[in-house]
Amino acid sequence: TLGGGRVEKKRPDEPGDHALGRSRGGWGSKLHLVSDGAGVPLAACVTAGQAHESTQFERLMQEVRPPRRERWPQKAAGDKGYSYPRVRRWLARRGVDAVIPQRSDQAMRDGDLGLDRRTYRRRSAVERCVGWLKECRRVGTRCDKLAGSFMAFVRLAFIQRYLRLLDPSDRT
């Protein structure tokens, strides 16, 4: 209860920690993002700063699953944070080639011919998308306490991006 006898109502979609936690950079959140090859954002979620990238992989990929008659993309690129057998198996079950460099603590798998560097270089589109999203002041500074409110502004930024893509003559 709050002072005055009122009962605080919990939001069912709000994490208990409000997606705030400790990380190397201090107190904060981590925004997990999926984009297409052109850097168009497709899905996002927020977790506490100490959450690992690979923990949100399946959740985000399920949000961007292809429509019924379409297939998953041929390749999916990620950084070393996604170099886990669970992630590679998930992609393999869907017929998607994992373009993920192996971490230094992982032994090179037999028959692994190495990383498709040409495809991996295209991963910069995701990094540019993250950079663009951080330029949106409300998202970049995480002004909101509630994770649900923060994600609402992330989605609003996505909509703004989609509208700009639909009308390339609008440069404002």
Describe this entry's structure for a reader:
- The structure is a single chain.
- The chain is an alpha+beta fold and 172 residues long.
- The protein has helices spanning 57-63, 85-93, 117-121, 124-135, 137-141, 147-166, and strands at 21-23, 26-35, 41-48, 75-77, 97-99.
- The strands form 2 sheets. The chain has a 3-stranded antiparallel sheet with strand order 1-2-3, with helices on both faces.
- Helix 2 links the parallel strand 4 (75-77) and strand 5.
- The chain is globular.
- The model has no long low-confidence stretch (mean pLDDT 81).
Short recap of the structure:
The chain is an alpha+beta fold and 172 residues long. It is 34% helix and 16% strand. The protein is built from 6 helices and 5 strands, in the order βββαβαβαααα.
Distance between termini? 46 Å
The fraction of residues assigned to DSSP E strands is: 15-25%
Specify the oligomeric state: single chain
Q: Major β-sheet, in short?
A: 3 strands, antiparallel
Give the helix proportion (percent range): 25-40%
Question: Strand sequence of the main sheet, in spatial order?
Answer: 1-2-3
Spatial shape: globular
Nearest-integer average pLDDT: 81
Blueprint of the fold:
Blueprint: E1 21-23, E2 26-35, E3 41-48, H1 57-63, E4 75-77, H2 85-93, E5 97-99, H3 117-121, H4 124-135, H5 137-141, H6 147-166
Parallel strand pairs: 4-5
Antiparallel strand pairs: 1-2, 2-3
